Amino acid sequence: MADLDMVNRDPNNLNNHLQICFDDVIGEPEGAHSADCVFRNSYKCYNGGKNCCYMFLTFLCGLPLALCWGCEFAMITFQHVWQITPCLRVFMINLGCCQKFLGSCVNCCLAPICETCGLFFSNIKVSNAATT
């Protein structure tokens, strides 16, 4: 908790897409201005409602959701450390042998055929003759 930044709570900019400030949501263009008192009070109502609702929801759901997400990422980490990574290592070891075997077969069987076809077709001459 010592390195927890209580001012910048999104240091990795995970939620830059959330543009929820009053200026990001409500804007009156030139020629369509409400009365100053309406605009000023709508600003206060918007921010008050948003802040109260957000605080209520975080008090109600924040801790249980944090616990659930912590468990979810713990399970994902467990899966990768103890299941997925070892399984991938087994596949890489076993399929590495198959890759060498198949590569040898291709080099021994197909490479001479392809080389011969290349030599055969390399002797073809194409010339464009104008027809009258």
Explain what the structure shows.
This protein is mainly α. It has one domain. Helix content is 69%, strand content 0%. The chain is built from 2 helices and no strands. The relative contact order is 0.03. The model has no long low-confidence stretch (mean pLDDT 92).
Provide the descriptors you would attach to this structure in a database record.
single chain; 132 residues; mainly alpha; elongated; Caveolin; cell membrane; golgi apparatus; membrane; molecular adaptor activity
The rounded distance between the terminal residues' Cα atoms is: 89 Å
Structural class, judged by helices and strands? Answer: mainly alpha
Overall shape: elongated
Report low-confidence residues grouped into runs of 5 or more: none
SSE run? HH
Please give the count of helices. 2
Strand-helix topology:
Blueprint: H1 22-25, H2 36-122
Membrane topology: Peripheral membrane protein
Organism: Lottia gigantea
Subcellular location: Cell membrane; Golgi apparatus membrane; Membrane, Caveola
Concise structural overview:
It is built from two helices and no strands. The radius of gyration is 34 Å and the shape is elongated.
